Structure formats: C-alpha cells, structure tokens
Amino acid sequence: MKFQNLATVVALIPYVLGFPHLANFPEYRSLAGLSPQEIRAVTRQFNSMPGAQPLPPPINDTSSKLINDADHPFMPLQPGDIRGPCPGLNTLASHGYINRTGVTTPGDIITAVQEGFNMGYQFASFLCYSAFVTDGNQLTNLMTIGANTTTDGQLATGINTHGNFEGDASLTRDDAYLGNNFNFNKTLFDVFDVAAKEVGNGVITFEAAALNRALRINDSIARNPEFAFETPRFLGGIAETGFFLAMFVNNQTVDNTMPLRIEDARSFFDFHRFPDGFYRRQGPFEFPLVKNVTYTLIDMIGRQPGNNNGVNNYVVNPEDPATFCYFYQKQVNATASLYPNPTPELGAAIKANLVTYYNTLEDPTCEQYFPYGQ
Questions:
Q1: Dihedrals φ, ψ of 228, to 5°?
Q2: 125 partner at 20 to 30 Å CA-CA among 18, 20, 42, 135?
Q3: Cα separations in angstroms, 37 against 31, 82, 288, 343, 351
Q4: 211-217 contacts: CB < 8 A, separation 24 or more?
Q5: Which has the closest alpha carbon to 177: 221, 224, 219, 215?
Q6: Range name among 148-157, 167-176, 282-291, 308-317 with the lowest pLDDT average
Q7: DSSP 8-class letter at 284
Q8: 372 burial type by CB count under 10 A (0-12 exposed, 13-18 middle, 19+ buried)
Q9: Contact 201, 207 (CB under 8 A)
Q10: Phi-psi region of 102 (alpha: psi -120 to 50; beta: other; left: phi over 0)
Q11: Backbone torsions φ then ψ of 142, nearest 5 degrees
C-alpha cells in the first residue's frame, strides 16, 4: 500500500493505535480526560508541540488611541470560526487583534487585550492563564476563545467551559441548566436597558451596572434549581460587570467615571464589533483598580458566594472567601483533577504553566501550590 503523503499516514495513527475516536483531534483542544496512551496517540498528529511558553512583554504605550482602525477592520464570522462567552475576546477576533478563527495562544490574548482595551498586563496575564491551565492544550500552547466545535461528537474545550469563565447569571446568556448558555440572548441583554432607565438616566452608569448584575443573579436564583455562584465564577462574574464599564466605553478616562451607551454595549455583546471611532481607555485597567471595582460591586449587590438548594433557595458558602488568591487555588486544584496522570512531556508543561500562573498574581502573600512537585 502506498501513502500519498505524510498527512495520510498521520491521520491513520489513532486507528493503528486503537483510538479511532481521536482521529483529527484539534491541536487547540484540551488533553484533559485522556489516558496517557490516548495522549500519546493524539500528540503524534500534532504539527508542533512547543510546550510551556514565557509571558509576552507588556505593551509600551498605554495611552488612549484609536482601536477601530484601517489595520483592524471588522469581518463577519466565517464557517468554522469560534466565538465564546467573552464579548471582548469575540470583538478582538472579529477585528483581527487575535486570530479571526478564535484559535490562538495565551501570549496573543495577553497582548491583544492590552492593545484593544488597555487591560493591565498583570491582570490580563492572570485572567488568561486562569483559563489556559484548565482549558487549553498545554503541549501545543493553543486555546480557543469558546467551545462551539466538536470532534466526533466530543466538545472541544475552551473558555466556554461551564463554571469557569462561562457560568450562571451571565449578563447576556442563559444558564446551562436553562438551555442555551453560549448564544446571545436579547431578552437578557434588555435587562441592561431596564437598569439604565431605572437608575442611569438611560445609560449604563456604575449604579446601573450593579443593578443589572443583581437582577441577573436574582433571575437565576428564581429559575435555576442548580444555580452555582462560587469562586471562580462568583468573583469572575462580579468582576466582568466592572470590565465593560472600564473598557467598553469609548475614550474612557482613567478614573472610570464615564457611562456606557446601550448601543455601544450591544455592539460588543451582540455583534462582536468595536463601535465606530472607538478609542481605548486612557491608562491600564490593572489589579488595584480591578479589585476596587469588584469589591465595591460586591458590597452594592449584597451577595456572597453560594449555590441554590432548589429554586429560590440560595445558600451562602461561608468557606469561600472570594479572593483572587482563592481563585488561583481553585484553578490549580481544577487543573490537578483534570490531569491526574499526565505523560512526562505534558506534566512538565503543566508544571511550568502553573508557575507562570502563580507569578501573574499581584499579591505575593498568596500561597503557591505544587500539585506536580517543585
């Protein structure tokens, strides 16, 4: 038998090794849940396996500048393009700040959110690695900004993994228990308008954003008997309310006082598109400001981490401190549970990435964890 090319041989590897269900395994799909034998079969298909990579350097210019420019035109999705729960990443992909397919690297995401939104370097690195260590392919150094593709019926993980960054009480998507947790829901988006009219004079002020978040949490408590709102989702869900006020406002001032127009919010959330003439915020949205905004919102909303014990029966978890140190701890524990027996190459990559992840934390007093040894 003569093979026409190397690709044909590579495609047959899973069949030869007894794992036909892993044929055409995407290079960006997480290896979590695979046995060492399956990992070896899969990795023989990959073109490149650079493993753990260092963080990219921070951008030099953090001033306000035009982002929706001629070098980054909006382009509609093409067949196979991936989008996910984060309107900011979706927009960056649609404008080419990251690969328009939605398949990218952690380093590219870290650079793109700085360039597009002036997200602070350290906080951008923390967020990106919070997702990557649980949901990325740590051998190919690839990840997706969503999870809306399948291989032989198996979901390809990305930041759309439920309970991590995607989760209950989303601002514009249903809870997973209630149905479609990945597509934009205009009815839920309209809660922005309700909150804006009630306390924001028709625009999304800080007070309107807090009310909107409270309304979405209360809605999930009332309708979802399996509502879960603990760290990391609790802290991420509250913080994201501050994200759009800090980074979706055209030419935002550094003190984060300008309101967001409803039509501009929808441009990001629904259409994945920068508003015309969009200038990024002045100065980076970095950890100290993130923490201030997040904990102010928590106080205004009046909720603590917890879960539903049946519809309309929210139970606070007193053991969840809702800190970024605890956020890191939960993600490390999740990573260790996903990869209990990695191959030597994969184990080395995970170990290195977890060190990088710890180094993205702002607080040096956070305890460092070594599930794979030091």
A1: -125, 125
A2: 42
A3: 12, 29, 45, 9, 20
A4: 212/171, 212/241, 213/169, 213/171, 213/237, 213/238, 213/241, 213/297, 213/301, 214/300, 214/301, 214/302, 214/303, 215/191, 216/169, 216/170, 216/171, 216/188, 216/191, 217/169, 217/301, 217/303
A5: 224
A6: 148-157
A7: -
A8: middle
A9: no
A10: left
A11: -120, 155
Give me the amino acid identity at 119.
Answer: M
Go through the chain and tell me how many residues it has.
Answer: 374
243: tokens are: 């994200």
Classify residue 348 as left (phi > 0), alpha (psi -120 to 50) or beta. Answer: alpha
Could you tell me the pLDDT band of residue 364, with boundaries at 50, 70 and 90? very high
pLDDT in tens, 6-19: 454 455 566 555 66
Pinpoint the alpha helices (H) of the chain.
Answer: 6-16, 36-43, 87-94, 106-117, 121-135, 186-199, 206-223, 233-247, 262-269, 287-301, 324-338, 344-359
Do residues 252 and 258 touch, judged by C-beta distance below 8 A? Answer: yes
In this model, does residue 315 exceed pLDDT 50? yes
> How are beta strands 150-151 and 306-308 bridged, if at all?
unpaired
Six token digits for residue 325:
């140190």
